[in-house]
Amino acid sequence: MLEIMLFVVFPYVALAVGIVGTIYRYLTNQYSFTSLSSQFLENDLQFWGSTLWHYGIIPTTLIHLGGFFLPKLMFIMHSTPETLYLAELAGKVLGIMALVGAGIMLYRRLTVSKIREITTPVDWVILSLLFGQVFFGLILAFLYRWGATWFLHTATPWIESLTFFQPAPQYVTALPLAHKIHFLTGFLLFALMPFSRLVHIATFPFSYMWRRFQLVIWTRRKVV
Amino acid sequence: MKVRSQVSMVFHLDKCIGCHTCSIACKNIWTDREGAEYMWWNNVETKPGVGFPTQWEDQEKYHGGWELNDKPKNPELKLKLQNRLQTFTNLFSNPAMPTMDDYYEPWTYKYGDLFNSPLGDDQPTARPISRIDGKPIDIESGPNWDDDLGGSNIYAVNDPLLATMSAEEKQRLFSIEQLFYFYMPRICNHCLNAACGAACPSGAIYKRAEDGVVLINQDKCRGWRMCVSACPYKKTYYNWSTGKSEKCILCYPRLESGQAPACFHSCVGRIRYLGVLLYDADQIEDALKVPDEQLVQRQRDMILDPHDPKVVAAAKESGVPDGVITAAQNSPVYQYVKEWEMALPLHPEYRTLPMLFYVPPLLPVLNATQPNGTQRVETDLFSSLENARVPVRYMSRTLAAGNDELVIKSYQKMIAVRIYKRAETVGDVTKEEADAALAKAGMTAEEAEAIYHLTSLPNYQERFVIPPYSREGDIEELYDPQQRKAEMGFGKRQGPQRGL
């Protein structure tokens, strides 16, 4: 029963809260959609923390999503020992980058008094969870080797079963505790998105790639 | 021809007394809030000096504005900050981001200590504390920190423009008892080719087509802070509390109700002029792809004569309302910028096409070689410009992208008007000398009278020719006021508070 709650009900609730909440917040309080950057108040630690974090976590997240939704491609990509080694190495390097980045960000918020002043309670929650999430991810990577492969036979079918509304929690219920914590924290972070600054992910400015440099807005003339 | 209208500005530096009333008027209305305390949408700088933020003119440090590639056959403009791809790679930590140290840390005083301190032998003091974390701070910089320190070897020597000047010119600026400085009030230039808007990843910065005011949509801003680096004038500011960028809005709510912006309205020296310029938007790109020395002339060429029937017809076709065309015909800015060619844009070499123009300061322009800089007016003033206490080069570096001729021409007109009026009122200059001065400056007596009038005697309506807006009649109603009668009103009902 608990397993159904944790690995079927909770993911659905978390996704619903994350998606509906973010859309609701966008529609009702778009003003609050911002990265809340604090680079202006402190620049040196920010560079190392934020750069390492984002350059580590964005590829890692994309690779996870690739594992969920393009398992065949991922399987091909590490089907030989050489490529598997490479995949493992890349995952670990990116994970360590993200962990160090998150660590620096935590340290910065704790020690720089100006930054501490503008840190909200939810910032602490989010940053700690993110740090923990990456930490557990690395635990899995180092203690349970060849994650690139077993990932595709445990997490992937579970996520797939959730995607097609035929939940099969048995794929993950037998896994060790570290795995379970990592899975659950992932969904928890998604659920927290609308309640935190994580909404800035939803407004990544892709359109800058092709938009015109100068924007001129005309008032709409009344049609008589 | 695509005619657009721009509410433009002229600041007559020869009249600025550096009182900062403009800055205070602006601060009281717009930036007296948490996160905005350090912002000065309007500030007044002492030049030569480092400015605000410190050394904002040093684009090797801040990477603001646009750059022209060095291929004369295939000229192309690009942001000095970064290309589109780099915008994404630098999104997480902007390498050219100025920090609070480049401005100053806002502070207040612990006034409570004056009342609540226990009885003692010494007088209680109110210590300065940071307005960010409340901790005691040592105040090391502030707005106008180098106010009036024109010849200072701590501040003024760090003026980025001095690097381009000869040793002799530098010496002239710093010689004891001959010190020279002037005031430069600055607001957002509401550029035609705004670098802040071009750099904004979210596309939150836009130009209002009806009056050319450049604004940041606070709902669309995501705090990526590229505008702060990209604006070469450093006139967009990052609000550290709300996580949004903010800038001068040219008091558009005041403009829409027929009032001059607060800084214009409150100006004690009456140095500020506001009026409409009609310009040809089709020429924007080509006007920027020219060598530095030609930039000002090309910008002037873009500005259209509102009295020309062809321009009026084209303006009507482009949807410029009749009232705006009339305002353009009466615009004091048009007279200073185009008719008299006295007002010049600030740092045109940044290639943003700023629409705020400055009449260079004339005084003290007299010959540096005379003792105490004194000189009889009727002696050859024009040749003394080369030896003027203000090196012409300094002004041309500031206002004409290094084109000395433009500055000299502006000065010649100002001097000619002086000689002309002196012949009339004081009488120690003969009429022939006055006529010769006018001829040399290439102007008529009528023009001299007009310049004199608009410089010295203009009333409110002459200084500020605000176009009629009539938004309530022109603009499509998005909300029916009748339907909302019993409600609290429409629009934003929550304050600009920091998000989660």
Descriptive account of the structure:
The complex is a heterodimer of chains A (224) and B (500). Chain A has 224 residues and is mostly helical. Chain A has a single domain (2-209), classed as Transmembrane di-heme cytochromes, Chain C (Fumarate Reductase Cytochrome B subunit, Up-down Bundle), CATH 1.20.950.20. In chain A, helix 2 crosses helix 3 (71-77) and helix 6 (121-143) runs antiparallel to helix 10 (177-192). Chain A is globular. Chain A is built from ten helices and one strand. Chain A has helices at 2-28, 44-69, 71-77, 81-111, 113-117, 121-143, 147-150, 155-163, 170-173, 177-192; one strand at residues 216-217. By secondary structure, chain B is α+β, with helices and mostly antiparallel strands. Chain B has a domain at 291-301 and 309-463. Chain B has 21 helices and 14 strands. In chain B, the strands form six sheets. Chain B has a four-stranded mixed sheet. In chain B, strands 2-7 form a two-stranded antiparallel ribbon. In chain B, helix 16 (392-399) packs across helix 17 and helix 17 packs antiparallel against helix 18 (431-441). The radius of gyration of chain B is 24 Å and the shape is globular. The model of chain B has no long low-confidence stretch (mean pLDDT 89). Classes of the chains: A mainly alpha (224), B alpha+beta (500). At the A-B interface, helix 2, helix 5 and strand 1 of A face helix 3, strand 8 and helix 21 of B.
